[in-house]
Amino acid sequence: MSTTRTRRSLAAVTILTALILAVAGALALAGCGSDASAGVEASPAASASSGPITVTDGTGVTVTMDQPATRIVSLAPANTEIAYAIGAGDKMVAGTSYDDYPEEAKSLPRTGDFANPNVEKIASFNPDLVLAAGGLQDKLRGKLEDLGMKVYVVDPKTYDGVITDISNLGRLTGFTAQAQQVADTMQKARDDVQAQVASATRPVTFLEIYSKPLMTAGGETFIDDMITLAGGANLGATAGSGFPTFSTEVLFKNDPDVYIADSGSMGEPGDIARRSGFAELTAVKDGHVYVIEDSIIARPGPRLAEGLRELVKMIHPEAATAQ
Amino acid sequence: MTRLARTSIWPGIALSAGVFALCLLVALAFGPASLSLGEVWRFVTTGPVQGDLPNAIFWQIRLPRVLVACLVGAELAVAGVILQDLFLNPLTDPYVTGVSSGAALGATIGIVLHLSNLPWTTVLALVGGFLTLGVVWMAARRRGRIDIFVLLLAGVTISYLASAVVTVLMIRANQDMYAIVYWLMGSFSGRGWQDVVIALVAAPFMIAPLFFAKEMDILLQGEKRALELGVEVERTKRVLLVTAGVLTAIAVSVSGIIGFVGLVVPHIVRLLVGPGHRGLLPVSLLLGASLMGIADLLSRTVIAPNEIPVGVVTTFVGAPLFVYLLRRGRKG
Q1: A253-267, B80-94, B101-115, B317-331: which has the minimum mean pLDDT?
Q2: In this complex, is the C-beta atom of A264 within 8 Å of any C-beta atom belonging to chain B?
Q3: Would an 8 Å CB–CB cutoff place A265 in contact with chain B?
Q4: Other beta carbons less than 10 A from residue B141's beta carbon
Q5: B119 touches chain A (CB under 8 A)
Q6: Contact A247/B at CB under 8 A
Q7: What is the rounded average pLDDT of the residues B54-69?
Q8: What is the model's pTM?
Q9: 3.40.50.1460, 3.65.10.10, 3.40.50.1980, 3.40.50.10090: CATH of A200-322
Q10: For A196-226, what is each residue's pLDDT tens digit?
């Protein structure tokens, strides 16, 4: 009896020890892994030496190319749009599953989708320049650069940041003049809109990114910047940065003058006026409820100029028609 | 033990009804729009008024949301009791039958097809839930009887299968990924009277198990013993399984997948009133509603104007409570 008990407790102790060792081992391995990747990420920055073309990307990293890019892979629809707009479409060798603008981009070979870019697949196109987006994709930089590709991360926080990215990509691809034209067009849209709303009051504007749960564009986003440029006061900016959830009660308490729902990447907003209680909102009563196409306000590319002009029509219909 | 529970259920029910009433009041009185208590009272007495924004905040935003939360909490708790006791497995929650994963798949399809948020996603979730229930049911039926263990295994298998399909859809349509992720996380944001109506459809299914309380008590001793004692085992199982499936499907279709309530509320209530179903079922219903009502209150107020996912709150509120009661129960 007592021997079985001892044996059992011995077994328990053995199992426990094995478990602890396994966990410790896993932790040690994980630790090594992160050290190694940190080292990899540090090296490319150090190797950035002087060359013919040097620009600083959206994450503050210096990108240097000895000559203009000839084979470009884009990892985000916005980047693809920029490449085509500045005339570098012929140099595009691959895009993402979500490239839908311009028309030619749809026939590009795909590297995978936005959230799961595949390094091997990207490398198989043998690009010299990879246009990545911020966030998750930024983490690929080290791997791609080890394989000899240059990586430019497009991660603008403002409308002007997009203009800067477009100019930079113009230089990296050798289409400086055309990129400058695109940048000028965007700059002109910005100046026109600013002139239109210069003396106007700022209507409280709510921009719905998603309805269940209610989400909005907070501060430090180019959407927030565009609402401000278009002469609105972005209610979402009171809820923090990025794309925060937003309390429906607080929305009602602040009773925005203009309600704009984003349509496209997060689904369709449906009939906003028929949502529970929404008929009481000033924006609904006054008919200032609008739906805007996601790709012209949420994609940091040249079509933001179009989005900005749309926004000013929604936020300041009187100023937009007066022009 | 059952005898003891049977003689003393009323104080427990009265107490939990009191707790529920209190939770309901608190959930209605407070919110991020910070209406004063006087105002709330005025809105309650005057009823819904058109053209009055604060009134709309109470009647069109807060009240339906609180009701949906309480209904979903009650539904999950009752489904949890039924399934834990049918499967004789304390780790069972309403989601093991695969119904919730089926509902998630339905909702995901709705989201991916960009059928505008309301009410198609909800409807497809319901359809997905019921279809899964049907499939699991067919798998578990052998010569006119339902094999509980096959049902459990089939449910878990279908769960994995449906989740795998959801993942594939999520990756394929990654533009919709956030919408799907938010749906899967569960939330009561933006729920209106329409959702209250859907959640209320489940009311008869919350009451029905009460009529099987005695059979459920006996089934705790195993199917064989129940047969010997003259229980119509197969009929009881069928009714209860469908009931739990419908409750889960409806709850999930309006709220998404909110964890912990269906798992832990039945255990908490067993510690409080014992395993007798005449007490366990109604008290679980009331405390499930209370816990979800309070969890949603915290979810919408603590970091206002942002919201905390309600599933996070149910776990944070429920886990310490459960551990405390477990320790107390051990001593007693």
Answers
A1: B317-331
A2: yes
A3: yes
A4: 14
A5: no
A6: yes
A7: 95
A8: 0.83
A9: 3.40.50.1980
A10: 998 889 999 999 998 888 999 999 999 999 9
Looking at this predicted complex, what is its ipTM? 0.85
A239/B contact by beta carbon, under 8 A:
yes
Fold entry, domain A53-174: Rossmann fold (3.40.50)
From the candidates A241, A252, A281, A284, which should be mutated to test the interface with B, based on the most B CB atoms within 10 A? A252
Task: Please name which of B177, B185, B184, B131 lies closest in space to residue B158, comparing C-alpha atoms.
Answer: B131
For B2-331, which CATH superfamily applies? ABC transporter involved in vitamin B12 uptake, BtuC (1.10.3470.10)
Question: Which residues in chain B touch residue A270, judged by CB atoms under 8 angstroms apart?
Answer: 116-118
The residue of A114, A245, A286 whose CB has the most chain B CBs within 10 angstroms, and thus the best one to mutate to test that interface, is A245
Please name the residues between 94 and 113 in chain A that touch chain B, using a CB distance below 8 Å: 98, 113
Contact B33/A266, CB-based, under 8 Å?
no
Q: Enumerate the domain spans of chain A.
A: 53-174, 200-322
Boundaries of every domain in chain B: 2-331
The mean per-residue pLDDT over the stretch A69-75 comes to: 93
The whole-angstrom distance between B175's CA and the closest CA on chain A is: 5
Q: Is A210 on the interface with B (CB under 8 A)?
A: yes
A117-130 pLDDT, tens digit each: 788 889 999 999 99
Torsion angle in degrees (nearest 10) through CA of A299, A305, A310, A314: 90
Mean pLDDT value of segment A231-252: 94
CB contact under 8 A, B53 and A255: yes
Q: How open is the CA angle A224-A226-A231, to the nearest 5 degrees?
A: 100
Please report which helix (H) or strand (E) contains residue A165, including its range: helix A159-173
Three-class DSSP category at A93: strand
